[in-house]
Design goal:
By secondary structure, the protein is an all-alpha fold. It is built from eight helices and two strands, in the order ααααααααββ. Strands 1-2 form a two-stranded antiparallel ribbon. Strand 1 and strand 2 form a beta hairpin. It is elongated and about 85 Å long. The chain starts with a helix and ends in a 12-residue tail after the last strand. The model has no long low-confidence stretch (mean pLDDT about 85).
Amino acid sequence: KSEALQQYARIIDRLEAGAGPFANQGPTFKQIARRYEEFAKANKAPSTFRRDKAIIKILTKRFGDTPLSKIDNQTIEGFFAAEKKAAATKNRELATLRHLLNKAREWGEIKENPAAVVKPLKVQKKPIRYLTNDEIGKILAAADGIWKSIIITFLETGLRAGELSRLKWQDIDIEKRLITVHGTKSYRVRH
């Protein structure tokens, strides 16, 4: 029994000194995920950052303490194959993982991105459904006040909700019937 305790103490000492199964294998997924979150918070739109943060939480549950050097394309494919999620959701998670690992490569933490060779799943694209004139009429008839103006603006401009909510009076030229949209999804100014 005392020999087992001595052996246990030696193992603990070695682990605390940095020896062990994951010694010298580079940073763990969790460590890079934290660094990537800081990068995403500083460089991505708030809504994109929130989505990425949620995805990183899912990925960290699976890959957390695994050294990046031990994550390969087969591990990644196995993870996504086991997930009971829609193909589009898996593809968003894969895209985030791919970008995270690309940043790790840029930061010199890994030589290759194992997610780069993982192919996204095929997604059945749904046809775009447009409102009929009858539906538009019913919506406008039910709306009043400011809501009617907001709905008409959406219908006439095709703005996204976030784009409309960020508009300032200086973005609107009533005489030219022109709206300048800043902070678009593509980071381009639109008119």
